[in-house]
Amino acid sequence: AIGGGGTQTSAIVFGGEIPPASAAVEEYDGSSWTAATAVPTARTGICGVGQSQSAILAVGGYDAAPTNFYAGNNSWNGTSWTELADINTARKTMGGAGTNTAGMIFGGASAVANTDETETWNGTSWTEVADLNNNRRAEGGCGEVNTAALCAAGEGPSTANDYTEIWNGTSWTEVAQLNMARYEAACSGTSTAALIFGGSPPIT
Questions:
Q1: Would you call the peptide bond into 20 cis, given omega within 30 degrees of 0 as the criterion?
Q2: Strands (DSSP E) along the chain, which ranges?
Q3: Is residue 73 within 8 Å of residue 25, measured between CB atoms?
Q4: How far apart are CA 129 and CA 109, in angstroms?
Q5: CA 140 to CA 151: how far, in whole Å?
């Protein structure tokens, strides 16, 4: 899984699996892709947090060893990456929302199991807040601020799910379920006007 963010005419993607884990970064200008400075640590299952091609976080993930989880948090300013404060729980394939100075991550898989943990970012440090109602990994996450986000789909504990939860800055609330259960789907938009697409179907 790769991380990324931005808009349809100004986007960035990073990390992923070739295999092994990749540190590659590419930027999109609306018509073509251009290679940019690699993330400091090659990894997959990485989460992108941010709304701008030139202001985004690359959070968590794992390297070529599936059990080697990463707690790192790298900030991109359009030219270079800077290491910032680590997340509290190292994990992979979590959902993310918000900006690079007011962001959040939720769910994912830790070294132990899938998790329901949520952390918010204030530009300096990560703080654990209220958990998701359903622990999961590889979920879709979207939202322009860290006080109004959406978490949809995911995998856990043993199959894809159709759960949707909305974050109001204090707690998660379960709302209408997806039409199709899936995991590793992409999600974009806001907590009240979102789009989810792609992903893998339920495990049989």
A1: yes
A2: 3-7, 10-14, 25-28, 33-36, 47-52, 55-59, 73-76, 81-84, 95-98, 103-106, 118-121, 126-129, 140-145, 148-152, 164-167, 172-174, 186-189, 194-197
A3: no
A4: 17
A5: 6
170-201 burial by CB neighbour count: b if 16+ within 10 A, else e? Answer: eebeeeeebeebbbbbebbeebeebebeebee
pTM above 0.90, yes or no: yes
Q: Which residue has the tokens 């968590």?
A: 60
Judge if the upstream peptide bond of residue 157 is cis by omega within 30 degrees of 0: yes
In terms of Cα–Cα distance, which of 171, 130, 174, 127 is closest to 154? 174
Residues in the chain: 204
Per-residue pLDDT tens digits for 96-143: 999 999 999 999 998 888 999 999 999 999 999 999 999 999 999 999
d(CA 91, CA 31): 33
Q: In sequence order, which residues have a C-beta less than 8 Å from that of residue 185 and are 6 or more positions away?
A: 140, 152, 153, 196, 197, 198, 199, 200
Q: How many CA atoms lie within 13 Å of 88's alpha carbon, on the beta-carbon side? A: 16
Angle at CA of residue 153, ends 123 and 41, nearest 5°: 45
CA distance 24 to 2: 10
**Low-confidence residues in the chain, pLDDT < 50:** none
What are the structure tokens assigned to 129, written together?
A: 């807040």
